[in-house]
Write a structure and sequence with these properties.
By secondary structure, this protein is of the alpha+beta class. It is 49% helix and 24% strand. The chain has a four-stranded mixed beta sheet with strand order 6-5-4-7, with helices on one face. The protein has a three-stranded antiparallel beta sheet with strand order 1-2-3, with helices on one face.
Length: 156
C-alpha cells in the first residue's frame, strides 16, 4: 500500500511538471488528467493507511470490507477469485457473488454505485475486493471465509 501511494504521488508530481512545462498541448492535457486522478488515488490510499480498522474482517456473521461495507453470509451466493488482465499486468480480485446485487447497490458506498455499471460491462458484480491491499493471498481469504461459513460456495 505504501508503494502504491508513493507511485501515485510520483504521478502527481509528473502531472504537475507537465502542467508547469506546458510545452505542448498534449503535455498540458496529460497534466490536467494525471495530476487530479492520481491526487485522488493518493488521498484514498492515505485514508486507508491512516484508519484504525483493518481492510477486511471476517466473522461468523459475515464479511466487512473497508470500501464495500458489510455483508451477511446469507447475502453471499458464492465467492471467487477473478483476474483482470491489462496488457502485461493483471489484477486479482475476490468477487462476492450476491443473491441480490440491487439490494446491495441501494445501500452501497457512493464509489461502488458509481463503478457498478463499468464492472458489469467487464463481467464483474458490484462487490469486488482488490487483493493487493490485503496482507494475505486471496486463497487464504477464501479458506478463512469457508471456516466461518462452511457451506459457502467457492467458484473457480
Amino acid at each position: 500500500m505504501w508503494a502504491m501511494m508513493a507511485g501515485s504521488l510520483a504521478f502527481v508530481a509528473l502531472g504537475v511538471v507537465f502542467l508547469v512545462a506546458h510545452s505542448t498541448v498534449l503535455m498540458t492535457v496529460a497534466g490536467v488528467l494525471v495530476a487530479p486522478f492520481f491526487g485522488f488515488c493518493s488521498v484514498m490510499m492515505a485514508q486507508r493507511l491512516l484508519r484504525d480498522r483493518p481492510e477486511l474482517v471476517l466473522d461468523d456473521a459475515g464479511v466487512e470490507h473497508a470500501s464495500l461495507g458489510r455483508f451477511g453470509w446469507d447475502e453471499i451466493a458464492a465467492v471467487r477469485i477473478r483476474e483482470q488482465r491489462v496488457r502485461n499486468t493483471s489484477q486479482r480480485f475476490i468477487e462476492l457473488v450476491l443473491h441480490d446485487p440491487d439490494a446491495y447497490l441501494a445501500r452501497a458506498p457512493k464509489l461502488v454505485r458509481s463503478t457498478a455499471s463499468m464492472n458489469a460491462r467487464l463481467g464483474f458484480g458490484p462487490a469486488n475486493m482488490t487483493t493487493n491491499t490485503l496482507p494475505v493471498p486471496p486463497e487464504a481469504v477464501l479458506d478463512a471465509m469457508r471456516r466461518h461459513c462452511p457451506g459457502l460456495v467457492v467458484q473457480h
